[in-house]
Prior knowledge:
It is built from 8 helices and 10 strands. It is α/β, with parallel strands linked by helices. The chain has one domain (3-242): 3-Layer(aba) Sandwich (Rossmann fold), CATH 3.40.50. Helix 5 (149-171) links the parallel strand 5 and strand 6. It is globular and about 50 Å long. The termini are far apart.
Amino acid sequence: MSKYVLITGASSGIGRETARKLAKRGKNLILVARREERLQEIKDELLTEDPSLDVIVKGFDLTDTEGIKSFWDSLDEYNIETLVNNAGAGMYSLIKDQEYERVQSLLKLNVEALVLLTTLFVQKYSEIEGTQVINISSAGGYTIVPTAITYCASKFFVSSFTEGLALELKETGAKLQAKVLAPAATKTEFGKVANNVDEYDYDKAFPNHHSAEQVASFLMELYDHDAIIGYISRDTFEFKMRDSFFDSSFGEGNNQKLK
């Protein structure tokens, strides 16, 4: 049975570049995003390069968290070896100025959709050799950034949830691996959307930033490695990998005792 990599937020940026890199490895893909026409464009491009690939396009708005279970069930015929939860939203502004609807949408996408898809994936594939989930966090998932408090909090959740899941999977002897990628500033549409502007200059906004293609390369390094966390050093802006950031009580004696 053919295997697939499922990528959310695949219509642009890191998701799109990751699709390109996986396609070069001959991976069949399931590409998910709201903008189905953009997904069709990348599908056409990938099939031009390698007609032997199977590229499935799924137009779906992941902020529709009530529909995620039905969306997942629609993929039941596919054997998914890797889930890349890349879809996410940013927002730069003071909390007092944030629009309620934007906050709600951000939390639904960054937290709810990611947790629900990850949970469904783990429940189906945890005992399947060679499977992994890679959740995209941010350097802001480990550092509180001014004017991005809500965004950072959502990514702190992604980082701690995924790191905790990885430890749980290891402790229970599961075959599936959970990993978290934490990029820093990356030149994508993120800057325009997060700042709610029509134009955004990354060269002026940040002293350092990566391209989406560079971050997709980092993702592939993590994909190939057994480390839990791939992140950008805020000191050197280099990509590094490690197994933990957060304190945990795994292995301690004061935890709840389960029967």
